[in-house]
């Protein structure tokens, strides 16, 4: 809705300097003719200039040319007066300003803007982006990004664009009432003014709020002088869409910044706590050592002697005393005394009333003195036969609120020798001496509990380390010989063989691949159980993922006479955000089981997959899948243990159909990692089954995702005969292996497999290859490191061409692959035409 406000008034359009006016060409003798000819020249110049802009795609660039180029601004300013003097109608005066409105192009730019917004990493960058986009979209002459929250004062300018000589703060002050209105209404407002002026003399002013879920984050303000164009409802709509995209990005940036600040604060707190804990642990270690030395000692003198010796060792002290307070005699007894490393005899000294020691006895406290002058000021006496120390630390021994004496450390070489750590340590030991036996008991219990906890933690960590090491070792040790078996059978199949020999070799190869499938299942489940399995969140084409899973089981279904059906409900997005590889793995497992357990007899000839979208209670987008077969069905007991690891419906199924009993357990775990769950339903034995699962998968704006399956290039099965290549596929994921092999088989190629970078290098050592299709994320050694080692070890003409085939499709991943020595880059999901291009660009080695 168009909203007009009386206050504040839209400011008058400022007069444009006349410096850009064209000189008249009329003769000097006739001033009137000169004026007429000058007017005509200006009119023609303006018309020529505007005619050159008439072919611009839409209003935004058209207006931008008018208000950003000095020559255009001057011509338009000079156009107005001659046009009026000539009495041209308003339509003719404003005709040169008309541009060609193409609403499609701005909205295409908005789509691109949404994608570019995802790459912005700071608010400052976002503010400048908004200014640029507003200028490009609607050709605004002035733009303000006004902030309302996020640590900035309300009404702060985030970024601005104003003509030279104008002030952004002054403009902000002028539109203050409009912003107040926007704070109340949360609605966009378009105004033209001053009222009563002609269109060409008015200014269009547009205010659009930046809101996310009714929270106001700021405003976008844009205006345009009528001389350069006029905003309309279409501009309001464009700016509203841009504001919605920018507001969401701004909210995300502020959330991320807040989380980052929390992480930094908590990290700093944790580090400080760790440093304090480490220092305290060192102190406690010394205290524990002293208390351990006191353990088991019941003799008073032995406890004092042991404590004195331990304190001297802890501080490397040559001057230490433990003084006992004799209440009855009002005297101080030196139980343990060492000065300059020499042990002094026990002595008893009377305490002078009113002196420093008397005060310390009556008011027990820790005393720390760091110089001779300070000792003199406090009146600390020097005991007969001793020297005055430079630094002194005395801590009271107290038990049950009663003073027992003092532990005193002295330093004759340094002033201010005792810091907080020494004070804490001596104070603790002094307090422990008063209740030594009780402390020994408590310490013994504490140490025992600590030892048990440490032992339990050590055992748990050792078990986890052992499990991880075992998985890594088994992955390498099992895959390495399996890679050799499969690779050598591939070589064998390339040699002349009899039919029986070829059948035997194919049996060896298929058996090896079946064994590798079982190994992959076990390792996948072990990763999940160990908490080492992660899922990705990347945009992908949903239909392509589903079709690729169906393609992998289609041949087996055809052999059994089964029909595969797919039903995609209305509302299912064409592209979603999630883990395409893991979703394909789950679908392939369920579809493979459905085909395996359906015999294809009359009445049992169909396996169906249905997909629908649903909004969950908490507002998240979910995809629901159901795979229905007409197979052997399940009993209630079979359904109860269906998702247990190493379990199938009954023991007879395991013998008849084979399998590890891990596929469904893995699939259910994967759906849980993707934010959903899996269930099974069956009417009974012989009635078929329906496996259902759902995952969190919000719709994603992915280029080319139009809701329909893309037309795929038809593979040429004779390509390998025309362009023969020896291909090595380095890929650890079973589903991706099958998919890549399927694509290569359709082109007539047979590839050897390597499960990680180490196996890929070993394969190249055994035989030459023309092409390596290299995954990036693999166990043992990733594809980047493997590529570095291959390019360092073999010259370019001696090594195979390396093509990355990876799900790492974010910005910078391609550069990382090429920097590691790879020759090309294919992003998953792999398209047939891209794979064909990579094969065609690979020359066969002689």
Residues in β-strands, percent: 15-25%
First-to-last CA distance: 73 Å
Radius of gyration: 42 Å
Helix content: 40-55%
Low-confidence runs of at least 5 consecutive residues: 1-7, 11-34, 650-655, 707-711
Number of strands: 24
Q: What is the structural class?
A: alpha+beta
What composes the largest sheet? 7 strands, antiparallel
Total helix count? Answer: 26
- Global mean pLDDT: 78
The backbone outline, from C-alpha atoms, is flat
Report on the structure:
The protein has 846 residues and is of the alpha+beta class. Helix content is 48%, strand content 17%. The protein is built from 26 helices and 24 strands. The strands form 5 sheets. Strands 6, 7, 8, 9, 10, 11 and 12 form a 7-stranded antiparallel beta sheet that branches. α5 packs parallel to α9 (233-294). The longest helix has 62 residues, at 233-294. The radius of gyration is 42 Å and the shape is flat. Mean pLDDT is 78; it is low at 1-7, 11-34, 650-655 and 707-711.
What descriptors fit this protein?
single chain, disordered N terminus, 846 residues, 26 helices, five-stranded antiparallel beta sheet, alpha+beta, seven-stranded antiparallel beta sheet
Quick summary:
The chain is of the alpha+beta class. The protein contains 26 helices and 24 strands.
Itemize the secondary structure elements and their pairings.
Elements: H1 31-53, H2 59-68, H3 70-85, H4 90-94, H5 104-117, H6 123-138, E1 142-147, E2 156-161, H7 168-174, H8 176-185, E3 189-193, E4 203-212, E5 215-225, H9 233-294, H10 300-315, E6 320-326, E7 331-339, E8 342-343, E9 347-350, H11 356-362, E10 367-369, H12 372-378, E11 391-399, E12 402-411, H13 420-434, H14 436-493, H15 499-529, E13 538-541, H16 542-559, E14 563-568, E15 575-578, H17 580-596, E16 606-615, E17 621-628, H18 636-640, H19 651-657, H20 663-673, E18 677-681, E19 690-696, H21 719-722, E20 727-730, H22 734-746, E21 751-754, H23 757-766, E22 771-774, H24 783-793, E23 801-806, H25 813-819, E24 824-827, H26 832-840
Parallel strand pairs: 14-16, 20-21, 20-22, 22-23, 23-24
Antiparallel strand pairs: 1-2, 1-5, 3-4, 4-5, 6-7, 6-12, 7-8, 7-9, 10-11, 11-12, 13-15, 16-17, 17-19, 18-19
Helix pairs in contact: 1-3, 2-3, 2-6, 5-6, 5-9, 6-9, 9-10, 9-13, 9-14, 10-13, 14-15, 15-20, 16-17, 17-20, 23-24
């Amino acid at each position: 809705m168009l909203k007009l406000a009386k206050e504040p008034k839209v400011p008058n359009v400022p007069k444009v300097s006349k410096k850009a006016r064209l000189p008249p060409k009329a003769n000097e003798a006739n001033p009137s003719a000169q004026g007429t000819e000058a007017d005509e020249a200006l009119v023609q110049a303006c018309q020529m200039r505007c005619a050159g802009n008439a072919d611009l795609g839409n209003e935004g660039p058209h207006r931008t040319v008018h208000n950003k180029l000095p020559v255009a601004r001057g011509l338009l300013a000079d156009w107005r007066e001659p046009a009026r003097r000539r009495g041209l109608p308003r339509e003719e005066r404003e005709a040169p300003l008309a541009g060609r409105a193409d609403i499609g192009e701005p909205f295409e730019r908005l789509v691109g803007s949404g994608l570019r917004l995802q790459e912005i990493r700071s608010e400052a960058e976002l503010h400048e982006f908004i200014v640029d986009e507003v200028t490009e979209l609607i050709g605004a002459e002035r733009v303000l990004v006004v902030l309302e929250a996020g640590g900035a004062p309300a009404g702060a300018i985030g970024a601005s664009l104003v003509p030279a000589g104008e002030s952004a703060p002054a403009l902000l002050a002028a539109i203050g009432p409009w912003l107040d209105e926007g704070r109340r209404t949360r609605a966009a407002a378009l105004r033209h003014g001053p009222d009563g002026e002609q269109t060409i003399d008015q200014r269009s002013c547009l205010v659009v709020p930046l809101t996310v879920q009714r929270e106001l984050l700021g405003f976008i303000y844009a205006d345009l002088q009528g001389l350069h164009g006029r905003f309309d409802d279409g501009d309001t709509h464009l700016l509203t869409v841009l504001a919605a995209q920018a507001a969401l990005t701004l909210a995300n940036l502020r959330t991320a910044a807040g989380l980052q600040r929390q992480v930094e604060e908590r990290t700093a707190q944790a580090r400080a706590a760790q440093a304090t804990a480490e220092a305290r642990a060192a102190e406690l270690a010394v205290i524990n050592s002293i208390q351990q030395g006191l353990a088991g000692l019941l003799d008073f003198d032995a406890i004092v002697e042991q404590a004195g010796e331990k304190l001297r060792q802890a501080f490397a002290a040559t001057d230490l005393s433990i003084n006992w307070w004799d209440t009855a005699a009002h005297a101080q007894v030196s139980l343990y005394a060492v000065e300059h490393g020499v042990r002094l005899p026990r002595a008893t000294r009377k305490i002078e009333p009113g002196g420093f020691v008397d005060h310390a006895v009556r008011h027990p406290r820790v005393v720390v003195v760091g110089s001779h002058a300070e000792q003199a000021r406090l009146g600390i006496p020097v005991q007969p036969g001793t020297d005055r120390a430079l630094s002194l630390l005395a801590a009271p021994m107290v038990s049950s609120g009663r003073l027992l004496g003092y532990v005193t450390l002295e330093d004759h070489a340094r002033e201010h020798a005792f810091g907080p750590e020494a004070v804490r340590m001596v104070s603790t030991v002094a307090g422990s001496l008063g209740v030594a036996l009780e402390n020994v008991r408590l310490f013994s219990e504490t140490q025992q509990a600590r030892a048990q906890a440490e032992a339990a933690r050590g055992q748990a960590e050792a078990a986890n380390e052992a499990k991880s090491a075992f998985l890594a070792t088994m992955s390498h040790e099992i895959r390495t010989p399996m890679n050799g078996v499969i690779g050598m059978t591939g070589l064998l199949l390339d040699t002349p063989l009899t039919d029986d020999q070829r059948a035997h070799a194919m049996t060896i190869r298929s058996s090896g691949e079946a064994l590798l499938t079982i190994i992959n299942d076990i390792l996948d489940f072990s990763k999940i159980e160990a908490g080492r399995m992660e899922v990705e969140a990347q945009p992908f084409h949903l239909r392509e993922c589903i079709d690729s899973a169906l393609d992998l089981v289609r041949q087996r279904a055809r052999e059994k006479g089964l029909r595969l059906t797919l039903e995609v409900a209305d509302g299912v997005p064409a592209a979603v955000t999630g883990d395409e590889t893991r979703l394909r793995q789950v679908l392939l497992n369920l579809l493979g089981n459905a085909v395996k357990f359906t015999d294809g007899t009359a009445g049992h000839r169909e396996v169906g997959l249905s997909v629908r979208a649903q909004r969950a209670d908490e507002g998240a987008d979910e995809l629901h899948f159901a795979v229905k077969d007409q197979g052997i069905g399940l009993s209630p007991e079979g359904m109860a243990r269906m998702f247990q690891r190493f379990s199938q419906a009954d023991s007879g199924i395991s013998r008849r159909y084979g399998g590890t009993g891990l596929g469904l357990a893995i699939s259910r775990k994967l759906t849980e990692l993707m934010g959903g769950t899996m269930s099974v339903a069956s009417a009974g034995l012989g009635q078929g089954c329906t496996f259902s699962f759902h995952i969190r998968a919000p719709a994603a704006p992915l280029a080319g995702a139009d809701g329909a399956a893309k037309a795929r290039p038809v593979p040429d099965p004779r390509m390998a005969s025309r362009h023969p290549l020896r291909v090595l596929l380095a890929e650890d994921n079973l589903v991706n292996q099958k998919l890549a092999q399927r694509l290569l088989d359709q082109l007539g190629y047979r590839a050897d497999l390597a499960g990680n970078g180490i196996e890929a290098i070993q394969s190249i050592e055994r035989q030459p290859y023309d092409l390596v299709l290299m995954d990036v994320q693999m166990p043992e050694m990733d594809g980047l490191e493997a590529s570095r080692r291959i390019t360092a070890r073999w010259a370019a003409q001696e090594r195979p061409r390396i093509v990355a085939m990876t799900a790492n499709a974010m910005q910078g991943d391609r550069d990382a692959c090429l920097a590691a020595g790879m020759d090309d880059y294919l992003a998953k999901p792999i398209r047939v035409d891209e794979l064909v291009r990579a094969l065609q660009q690979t020359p066969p080695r002689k």
